[in-house]
Specification:
Largest sheet: 6 strands, mixed
Radius of gyration: 32 Å
Shape: elongated
Number of helices: 2
Oligomer: single chain
Strand order of the largest sheet: 3-14-13-6-9-8
Distance between the termini: 114 Å
Structural class: alpha+beta
Helix content: 10-25%
């Protein structure tokens, strides 16, 4: 960012000299001419373990500089979560075109249902593994899309009519994180964007080059609405009746077994008393 102004002093009869102030910015868009975009989708069927897929055209996997790393920052609602232990497997990461999970905050309880979650959800920073940065794989064919898959998990949601519920998932942010050039003063820009949630996870001398989203459809919403399975309210009466019936049958079976034991013990004690009397 640059500011143009004029500077004058009383010593030279208020003569004004043009002055330019320049402030380095940490955030930059990837040039639109490069065609660098990404698309967010949820492949069907979503089920209880939906997959968030980031799809890139082949041109968008070229880093601004060789030292850059491609990242994505997800903000998930409380109804979805990631299993951090699942992302610790190198084979799992390689199969999803991921390199590592760099940060995870928010709700991380793997067993809690959605109605006991007290926070808004969770945030995850992941480093992607584009083929151009992987020296063990050949570069992708020009024009061939490339994608990275992020495995998510659905929490238990309240029942709904029809057995299907909708959740809204915002698109993640995708960016290249690059080290700044030597000598660049990164802490003097008063106009830079701060508190975005992820810039504090990098060093102060990191530059961010943002890949632009490319939504599909009318309106261009950067939110995906996902249909997920829940308990069907129309079938709960059969579940309740079956549960009550199973409990009653189990109780009757236990009572019958206990009664047989008591009767057997009573018959045995009665027989012993009769034997004593005959003796």
């Amino acid at each position: 960012m640059s500011l143009l102004s004029f500077m004058s002093s009383q010593s030279n009869n208020f003569h004004q000299d043009p002055t330019r102030f320049s402030f380095p910015s940490r955030h930059h868009p990837v040039p639109p001419a490069s065609g660098s975009t990404f698309l967010t989708t949820f492949p069907s069927p979503t089920g209880l373990h939906p997959t968030l897929r980031l799809t890139f055209p082949s041109s968008s996997i070229s880093p601004p500089t060789p030292a850059c790393a491609l990242h994505t920052y997800l903000t998930l609602p409380s109804s979805l979560f990631v299993d951090k232990y699942q992302f610790s497997s190198p084979n799992f990461l390689a199969s999803k075109n991921l390199r590592a999970i760099r940060a995870l905050s928010g709700e991380t309880d793997l067993e809690a249902p959605n109605w006991v979650i007290g926070k808004w959800g969770s945030a995850i920073l992941l480093e992607l593994a584009p083929p151009v940065l992987d020296r063990f794989r050949p570069p992708p064919t020009r024009g061939t899309p490339w994608h990275a898959d992020i495995s998510l998990h659905l929490r238990y949601l309240p029942p709904a009519a029809g057995g299907v519920s909708s959740i809204d998932v915002p698109w993640p942010v995708v960016f290249w994180a690059c080290p700044a050039e030597e000598g660049t003063k990164m802490n003097v820009n008063p106009f830079d964007r701060v508190n975005l949630g992820y810039e504090s996870l990098f060093s102060p001398r990191t530059m961010f080059y943002h890949v632009q989203p490319k939504p599909v459809g009318v309106g261009g919403r950067l939110v995906e609405r996902v249909e997920v399975p829940v308990m069907d309210l129309e079938g709960t009466r059969w579940v309740e009746g079956g549960t009550v019936g199973a409990v009653l049958l189990g109780t009757l079976w236990v009572v019958w077994k206990l009664t047989r034991i008591l009767l057997r013990d009573w018959d045995a004690s009665t027989g012993r008393r009769a034997e004593r009397k005959t003796q």
